[in-house]
Amino acid sequence: MYNFESFTLDWYRELFSDTRLLIIVLNTVVVALLSALISTIIGVLGAIAIKSVKGRRSKNTLLSLNSVLIVSPDVIIGASFLILFTMAGVKLGFYSVLLSHIAFSVPIVVLMVLPKLMEMSPTLLDAAYDLGASRWNVLTKVIIPYITPGIFAGFFMALTYSLDDFAVTFFVTGNGFSTLSVEIYSLARRGVSLNINALSTLIFIATIFLVIGYYFITKQYSKSGMGGKK
Amino acid sequence: MSDQVIIRFEGVTKQYDQDIPVLNDVSFEIERGKFYTLLGPSGCGKTTILRLIAGFTEATQGEIYFNGNVINNVPANKRQVNTVFQDYALFPHLNVFENVAFGLRIKKTKKEEVAKKVHEALAFVNLEGYENREIREMSGGQRQRVAIARAIINEPEVILLDEPLSALDLKLRTEMQYELRELQQRLGITFIFVTHDQEEALAMSDEIFVINRGKIQQSGTPTDIYDEPINRFVADFIGESNIVKGKMLADHLVEFVGKQFDCVDQGLNPDEPVEVVIRPEDLEITTRERGKLQVRVDSQLFRGVHYEISSYDKDGNEWLVHSTKKATVGDEIGLYFDSEAIHVMRFGETEEEFDKRLEAYGDGVGNEE
Amino acid sequence: MKSKLSRNLYAIPYALWILIFVVAPIVLVLYYSFFDIEGNLSLTNYINFFTPVYLKMTLSSFWYAFLITAFTLLISYPTAFLLTKTKNKQLWLLLIIVPSWINLLLKAYAFLGIFGTYGTANSLLEVLGIGSKQILFTDFSFIFVSVYIFIPFMILPIFNALDEMSPTLLDAANDLGASAWTTFRRVIFPLTLDGVRSGCQVVFIPALSLFMLTRLISGNRVITLGTAIEQQFLVTQDWGMGSTIAVFLIIIMFVFVALTGSRKRGM
């Protein structure tokens, strides 16, 4: 950008020869996949729990508690998690980052799965019991297959949220552990460098792929009628 | 208790929180191999009875017997009954074959046997060749059949049907009425059918339970219930009725609209106030002089098979007449009816008392006919 | 009741999540706000918050958030309105939403390049003969970039509200003799008010708590509540004061949500 002369792949080459940066990319991907996976499991169980709650009031309380981390500003989430991990004696680094990513992804998964559960006719469960299914059968043969599109959507959302997060990670990360967005931030604070430009492009492309992937998966499910669209 | 009885309710009450009970101290027996209909307006408790039998909900009080054993605490998945749901409740993520096979798969039945039985069940409901269809590709009537096939494949002793025809259009509904009735006779098992449609109930059932406000009002064969309704509710709910207040002067003599009429009812107290029912099709239009009642024609609708004529007597009671003859609005006409057309109802009579009274003069009525 | 307990075992992870990551952090923040920097239990932080330094900061943070929300609304409403009138509205909407998928940092970073001393914006000014200016690290750049970032979040709810509105309503208003302006004022705007409210919510609260943008784009000239919290926690290491500001931010958030809370009308 400073002295534009010709196109070159040098910056990409430099990027890939930088092992420190490669480790950071790896960290980011590992945290994203693990947190998305774990938060999807917790979120699905949570959505089923919320659905099974009978009282209107307790259901609303649960839903409000669920959305606290969605509406809270990142700074507050980051700061309060920092206090939490310090108090609990969790060493700031991989585990604190992973745990906080799981924490803020869970409510998103719940919100993606819950509508699917809600639209499921209660007679469907009655029908399964009626035909002799145990509670476990009902869960694995009826509920889970029915809400699969929601589970996928939740997983992808969790993945994007994790990859996208800067603020929370910035607070709870410690020496020696960094993710891409934290790295870009510290580089950017030092000014524009072509190294980051190349990195940005890569992230941008990765994001686009994720979005396209998400789009096709949801589309395919709604087409095959699994979504139960009327 | 006879071997014929498969399900028995004894003083069953179902109450949610502190609300009025949905079912209030209900007792009845269901016999093997018959077609039963629970008939009543929405919210009367008929679906609750079905859910209690299926095991989807628990009774607040009372016992439910199945083959002589109390099943109050047996969960739904261990009961020998299967349900056809109002919205069919077919699993949208499974195709027709897998939907029907669901119960067998749960029981871990062998593959070849599953295939054989599913094929049989589908053949039973005339759906051969539809095995690999997705549910969303099926029409309403076809879904209905899949739901039935899914229910019969477990070879239950009782099949519960929760308003299964309500989502179908009129023509298909009539077709399915025949089909269900015929299916029940072929299978020879008990069907318990819930509906709010009295025509459906009259057409299909061996026995009808008329239910209102959490109580069984009357049970009996369709003709019993139609010809001898126990009270105003049943008379009104089943078919159309002209109901007026009257007074039982003596056996076989009732007074209403200021006149005395011969009738077949007996065993009531002298001068007991009663309600009198005459069905619209039992009224015959004639001249003013020859009629037993004199009324003025208020309005008239052509119903295809007959004219529906609304008329009023001098006291302001409405008299509905179904007649193949046309009347003229504004005319003074006479209405003629047989003495058997008059049905007298006592206030607050229980079903046992009612049955006893009817039996007592059974001979007299039988001879006249 | 053993069976009931074992039946609900599956809900344990989620219940733990609520306890550890939802309830505990709030309690901890509240708890820490009562400790001064030496670790003594006191109300010092709350007293400090009402000193001119912090009040001024809070007010300025409010002012910026207000400006950002106002400009965002001013641009988004007409845009959403025009969008509903276009032929391929879903496609256009998608194009407007796409930037919100891109990492906030990358967008901020792109503006560093555009607004920099040798960036595109200055080259343009140069060509126009105005001469290069200091754009980066000004109020203008901060508000400009914030508005740019928040626009999709404002357009979406307004677009949905407009799109849901039955076209027969407009015909009905027309039929009853309303002019285009009256129709807008008496029919369209009231019906989209819920959309505007939720749009304002998703812009105002984050605008109060921005901290990365203030650092990168406005070079510490703008201190929002978010920046102050980050400063206290990560630079000054005064967790007590940071928690106190966080408590106030949470209170403000609740008040704002309550004030703009959409009262669903029975329709």
TrEMBL record, chain B:
Keyword Protein transport tagged: no
Entries under PROSITE patterns matching the protein: ABC_TRANSPORTER_1 (PS00211), ABC_TRANSPORTER_2 (PS50893)
Gene Ontology molecular-function annotations: ABC-type putrescine transporter activity; ATP binding; ATP hydrolysis activity
Keywords associated with the record: ATP-binding, Cell membrane, Membrane, Nucleotide-binding, Translocase, Transport
Domain annotation ABC transporter: ranges: 7-238
The keyword Transport is annotated on this UniProt entry: yes
Gene3D superfamilies: 2.40.50.100, P-loop containing nucleotide triphosphate hydrolases
GO terms for cellular component: ATP-binding cassette (ABC) transporter complex
Name assigned to this protein: ABC transporter ATP-binding protein
Species the sequence originates in: Peribacillus psychrosaccharolyticus
UniProtKB/TrEMBL annotation, chain C:
Membrane topology field: Multi-pass membrane protein
CDD domains: TM_PBP2
Keyword Transferase: no
Alphabetical list of Gene3D superfamilies matching this protein: MetI-like
UniProt-annotated location(s): Cell membrane
Main localization (coarse): membrane
Membrane-spanning ranges: 12-34, 62-84, 91-115, 135-159, 202-219, 239-259
Keyword Amino-acid biosynthesis (UniProt): no
Domain ABC transmembrane type-1, chain residue ranges per copy: 58-260
Secretion signal span: none
GO cellular component assignments: plasma membrane
Family listed: Belongs to the binding-protein-dependent transport system permease family. CysTW subfamily.
Protein name: ABC transporter permease
Species classification: Bacteria, Bacillati, Bacillota, Bacilli, Bacillales
